[in-house]
Amino acid sequence: MNFIENIREGLRSIAGNRLRTILTSLIIAIGITSLVGILTAIDGIQNSVASSFAGLGANTFSIVARQDAFRRGGRVQKQDEPIDYHDAVQFKQRFPYGATIALSTVAAGAAQAKFGSKKTNPNVQVIGGDGAYIPVKGFTLQSGRNFTENDLTYALNVAILGSEVANTLFEKKLDPVNQVIRVAGNQYKVVGVLAKKGGLTGGDEDRIVLIPLDNARAMAGTQRQTFNITASVPTVADQDEAVGEARGVMRQIRRDQLGQQDSFEVERADDLAKETENITGYLRMGGFGIGFITLLGASIALLNIMLVSVTERTREIGIRKSLGATPKRIREQFLIEAIVICILGGLGGIVLGLGIGNLIAMLISGGEGSFVVPWAWMALGILVCVTVGLFAGIYPAVRASKLDPIEALRYE
């Protein structure tokens, strides 16, 4: 009996026990689904994160105030003083690096926008910004215009809407530009609408109403505000030097003493991207571990089923050995059966894993992520299937090949 005939015999045996084959393949499919699904979801999330940071720009950095207290030596330290309007304007005037600098502040974190009888949920963020806010933050205008110098100088009641706010209020039936809306008790004339940004934030950047910076200051009244400074340098190569210069200028403005820790934080877009990539790397390791444990359980189940198969087919093995089948051919047949079952389950698991993984990534990224086909993880899945098949089939195959033909023929 040659190797090709052995393959045919193994396939005939699998076809003759369809229910057992299907159930066994499902066990393997669940393991591969967990492995490929988790890793596909992580790759999809990573792509969404990369797209979000690409929209912001790799040559961008922000100077922000720390928002919470921190511990040092077992004692809670006071949080830093907010970056006030004077600090922000001073930085914009004194930073010598030829960067485009945008100043912004959050005027209201949970406001409600209204137009006639239509209104949004109270989750709209009202942001005060200058003319550089839209290009530096990576937004694009879908319609209308950006703030003019006149809007900013005289603090006119004009607003630029995020795409979700515009769609909720006007339902794509009416052009929002030149319409008047009410936000946080004030009326604003809509002069522009931002294109949908989406991304990993879950649509937060599409639920904004952008107003001139001085309007946001007036809206805050006597409440203390903190201002964010975002700078975009000409090239990525200039960023290290620009960040160092910005830190020095800001320390002078904030009067930080020599040897004292910065009273602010500098957040680089590429640093955030690298940190996120490191986190997803750990998630991949965890996902692989979970998938491996699931596959280990599946291989043990397959081993048990193959042992049962050897017991059921003892008489058949005796007949084949009496007709001249060598122990090697007997081992090959059982190994082929185990590997084919694993590959069938693996292919089903890969298809399910791709679908489930991309669905999870789409839900987390707010529907903005692209469909990911992780060829490396798929190849790994097939390799794991073959390995599991060998692991689960080798012992039953060796046991079957060692059966005495006379004793096997007597088996009932």
TrEMBL record:
Gene Ontology molecular function:
transmembrane transporter activity
> Per the database record, which ranges form the ABC3 transporter permease C-terminal domain?
290-405
Q: Which InterPro entries match?
A: ABC3_permease_C, MacB_PCD, Macrolide_Exporter_MacB
**One GO cellular component from the entry?**
plasma membrane
One of its Pfam families is MacB_PCD
The membrane spanning regions, by residue number, are: 21-42, 288-311, 338-364, 376-398
Per UniProt, residues of the MacB-like periplasmic core domain are: 21-247
Q: Which family does it belong to?
A: Belongs to the ABC-4 integral membrane protein family.
Q: What is this protein called?
A: FtsX-like permease family protein
Q: What species is this protein from? A: Spirosoma aureum
Q: What is the lineage of its organism?
A: Bacteria, Pseudomonadati, Bacteroidota, Cytophagia, Cytophagales
